[in-house]
Amino acid sequence: MTSAMVRLFPPRTPAAVLIAVWGMLGVVALLVSAIVRLTPLAVEPLTTGMTPLQWALYVGWSLFNLYAEGYKGFQKAFVPRAVARAFYVARYPRPLHVVLAPLFCMGLFYATRKRLILSWGLVIGVTALVTLVRGLDQPWRGIVDAGVVLGLSYGTVALLVTFFGVMAGRPITVSAQAPDGAPQ
């Protein structure tokens, strides 16, 4: 089965490293873009004042998102798979896969059926939530955005640490979740 976990030492040729870096750079750019756009909205309630309940929600939601989004969602699930997919596309480059390497790393195409459903479901779900949160007034929007900024920031750092760890010699031990029949 092609989605099985394997212990893989990624290729180190200059072309392979460049492809993997391009994939990760694109993912990091998307995450940083969201962090930069949301940070002013997340900080605004700190400067305009909040009630004790709003402060409690601000802190509680932020801590919850550090754990749920940052640690569980990014560090334990998304990050290892995205890094594995970055080196998979570097090992088995196809022109379209290389050009779209950031989307490839996010599992949005050329993946198992389950991965495609989960990845696209996440994109659609996040888009729906963003639309709903945009309608909130401050400080409520800032409370939600503070948690998201912290979760995304944690996830971005985890992605970079994991990627550079693999570059330094740590093997990949998770599946790239390429479709059945794809080279492994």
The number of distinct β-strands equals 0
Mean pLDDT: 91
H/I helix tally: 6
The first-to-last residue Cα distance is 10 Å
Strand count, sense and barrel status of the largest sheet are:
none
Radius of gyration: 18 Å
Binned, the helix content reads over 70%
* Percent of residues in β-strands: under 5%
The helix/strand class is mainly alpha
What sort of overall outline do the alpha carbons produce when their principal axes are compared? Answer: elongated
Describe this structure in words.
- Helices cover about 75% and strands about 0% of the residues.
- The chain has about 180 residues and is mainly alpha-helical.
- Keywords: Membrane, Transmembrane, Transmembrane helix.
Summed up:
This protein is mostly helical. It contains six helices and no strands. Helices cover 73% and strands 0% of the residues.
Properties at a glance:
mainly alpha, 6 helices, elongated
SSE arrangement:
Blueprint: H1 14-48, H2 52-91, H3 95-99, H4 101-105, H5 113-134, H6 140-167
Helix pairs in contact: 1-2, 1-6, 2-6
